[in-house]
Design a protein that fits this description.
87 residues, Alpha-Beta Plaits, 4 strands, 26% strand
């Protein structure tokens, strides 16, 4: 499945969330990641994120498409990180 993950995390937890997300997805912009994950990888990532964040203070939004189709993307301005093949 294709994933887009965005987060708003308190400062003391950002490094842990960033490091975890980079293990599964490609960083594309501040607090934003994308990539293909298997259903198992998706569940693992969710479980690990839940152990790090404070659900009363932090927010993670995950957009996904189960068919595995990558949506069209248009970047206006600079690209923060060139897409890479990581899986």
């Amino acid at each position: 499945m294709y994933i887009i993950l965005v987060y708003d995390i308190e400062t003391q937890r950002i490094a842990k969330v960033l490091k975890l997300c980079r293990q599964y997805l490609v960083w594309i912009q501040n607090s934003t990641f994308e990539g293909e994950l298997s259903p198992l990888q998706y569940k693992e990532l969710q479980a690990k994120l839940k152990k790090i964040i404070n659900p009363k203070k932090d927010s993670i939004i995950i957009f996904y498409h189960k068919a595995g189709l990558k949506p069209n993307k248009q970047v206006i301005g600079i690209t923060k990180n060139e897409e890479q093949t990581f899986l």
